[in-house]
Amino acid sequence: MKFMNFENYFDLTGKVAIVTGGGNGIGKACCLMLAKAGASVSVTDLKFEDAKQVADEILQAGGKAIALPCNVTKDEDLVAVVDRTVKEFGGIHILVNNAGGGGGGRENPRQFGVDKFAWVFQLNVFSAWRLSQLCAPHMKTGGYGSIINITSMSSVNKSPNMSAYASSKAAMNHMTANLAMDYGVDNIRVNAVGPGATKTAALASVLTPEIEEKMLAHTPIKRLGEADDIAGAVLYFASPISGWVSGQVIFVNGGGVQTLD
Amino acid sequence: MKTTIEKLFSFEGKVIIITGAAGAIGSAAGHLFASLGANVVISDLNEEGARKVAAGITQETGREALGIKTNATVESDLETLVQTTINKFGKISGLINNVGWGAATPIWGSDTDKMVKSYLLNTVGAYNLTKLCMPYLEKEANASVVFSGSMVGVSPSPEFIEYSTAKAGLMNMVRSMAVVSGPKVRFNTVLIGSVDNGDSTLAAGYTPEMLKALSDMFVMKRRGVPVEIAYGMMFLMSDAAQWITGIDLRIDGGGTYKSKMPGKD
User: Fold this and answer.
1) Which of A77, A117, A218, B86 places its Cα 20 to 30 Å from the Cα of B61?
2) pLDDT in tens, A225-239
3) B3-249 placed in CATH 3.50.50.60
4) Residues B104, B160: contact at Cβ < 8 Å?
5) What H or E segment, with its residue span, contains residue A14?
6) Is the CB of residue A181 less than 8 Å from the CB of residue B260?
7) CA dihedral A165, A170, A173, A178 (to 10 degrees)
8) Which of A9, A144, A165, A183 is the catalytic position?
């Protein structure tokens, strides 16, 4: 029986991870989880102060982290994140494309233009594609690569006023499957995690008790998600134990469908 | 910092039944869960194999494991499996419906008998055993059932017409169980690609040359090893997956690919 030792299942010691949008919510939980598994983490966020707090928390607990400012819609920021990470930690093995935005039932197609639509794709899709492109050579050189895209239940749900965000996340799902093909030859795995409604500040901005009650009515596991629920799935994909898993989208959603309407 | 993660994936104090567990994937799961602290029940049609796997697990991990003969298509055998588990360990915290098998059949070469037999083994057996386990599972924290699905159940598989239709049925059954059984019990499927499980694969009609060609078709350029499937089962059963139910986790080396532009790939 060929086993890794348990210590190795989730052991990311010596591995380097970049997490975008790592300052809060799901991204923060991913940073902490990967650091707990031993990875050195580049915590990147549009809000540098938030990234710094997360990096400090990791450092105080004995882990390794740096905080970097990053607007994922700016190519120079993405290039800088990769350069700084390689300089600081010597390579890149794990990329969590978590930064994203839009949606929230605020996309009435009568009230926004194609520029806003393009911006949502820039933020959610193009940035993840570009950052993967920048990280892949380092993953190939380092002999270990796992890219994890944070998608959304909205990528498969039908909801009003979500056309830009939901279609961008659907694009992300399919991009995941296609990049798995492209980067598989370099032993880089590409997977996605699709959170259901998860208790973060972003959700709190649109959640009402009535909406929550309706969401739970359609959710077998009778609670909304916690950021750690998502980070657990990210850890699975980041770890050596998922070495034969690529091109997959898994939904962490309590078995149900949570929509805002 | 590692202790939090060890806790997430600890199976200390859990009792897990695994069917088809004398085979490559089932026995890998048995060893894995026992190494993480569980007492496992190794159920298989092959009694000697089941006992051997259980003894090997106990020897390797020091955990008490039970090997028991079960014909998954015989209801009284399933009852015995559940009762023996309860008598021995007092509870059931997890179930892995792993048993299943299918032979290559020409698409128009099947008949009612072959179709029904495949359905009874691959689908109905899992239903019956899960039903028997439910009263016990519902009493346990983060109880969970994992099913071994197959890629043949989601893609056209005329070579395995009996097996693939039974697996497709199984996977839809799992989704139905999931939507009504939360939050007490979680139900998920691991969707298995081509795994090197030794003799079983050869018995299904593959030659070594065919297997080499098959390996090259996968994005990861190899077939899976049994423990990689067990790792997926472990993740789905763990505390890290407490908000995951009703999903199919594909463990298939990224799938297979053939260019739509032959000669240009």
Assistant:
1) B86
2) 999 999 999 999 999
3) no
4) yes
5) none
6) no
7) -120
8) A165
Predicted pLDDT at B196: 85
Q: Where are the beta strands (DSSP E) in chain A?
A: 16-20, 40-45, 64-69, 94-97, 145-150, 188-195, 249-252
* Tokens matching residue A84: 């700084």
Q: What are phi and psi of A147, to 5 degrees?
A: -105, 130
Tens digits of residue pLDDT in B7-28: 999 999 999 999 999 999 999 9
Cα dihedral sign, A215-A220-A222-A224: negative
A11-251: CATH topology is: Rossmann fold (3.40.50)
Domain extents for chain B? 3-249
Close Cβ partners of A235 (under 8 Å, ≥ 6 residues apart): A10, A33, A34, A37, B5, B240
> B100 and chain A: CB distance < 8 Å anywhere?
no
Residue A181: its chain B contacts at CB < 8 A?
219, 254, 257
Percent of the residues in chain A that have a pLDDT greater than 90, as a whole number: 85
**Per-residue pLDDT at A142:** 97
Question: Which of chain A's residues have a Cβ under 8 Å away from the Cβ of B181?
Answer: 220
Which of B5, B12, B52, B252 best probes binding to A when mutated, by most A CB atoms within 10 angstroms?
B5
pTM equals 0.85
Average pLDDT estimate for B89-110: 94
Q: Is the dihedral of CA B235, A198, A180, B247 positive or negative?
A: positive
Strand partners for A65: A41
Give the tens place of pLDDT for each residue, A116-131: 999 999 999 999 999 9
Under 8 Å between Cβ of B100 and B167: yes
- For chain A, what are the domain ranges? 11-251
Q: Which residue has the tokens 């297997």?
A: B211
Going across the sheet that includes A145-150, the strands are A64-69, A40-45, A16-20, A94-97, A145-150, A188-195, A249-252
Q: Which secondary structure element, helix H or strand E, spans residue B75, and what is its range? A: helix B75-89
The DSSP bridge partners found for residue A94 are A17, A146
Q: Are B154 and B191 in contact (CB under 8 A)?
A: yes
Closest residue in B to A188 (Cα) is B220
Cα B104 → chain centroid: 20
Q: If residue A175 lies in a helix (H) or strand (E), which one and from where to where?
A: helix A163-184
CA distances from B249 to A155, A191, A192, B252 (A): 17, 11, 11, 9
Q: Find the angle CA(A241)-CA(B247)-CA(A107) to the nearest 5 degrees.
A: 110
- Identify all chain A residues contacting B28, using CB atoms and an 8 Å cutoff: 1
What is the C-alpha to C-alpha distance for residues A182 and A176, in angstroms, rounded to an integer? 10
Count CB-CB contacts under 10 A for residue B206: 15
Question: What SS3 state is found at A25?
Answer: helix
Active-site annotation holds for A165:
yes
State whether residue A255 is helix, strand or coil: coil
- Name the residue among B28, B32, B179 with its Cβ closest to that of A220: B179
Cα of A258 to nearest chain B Cα, Å:
13
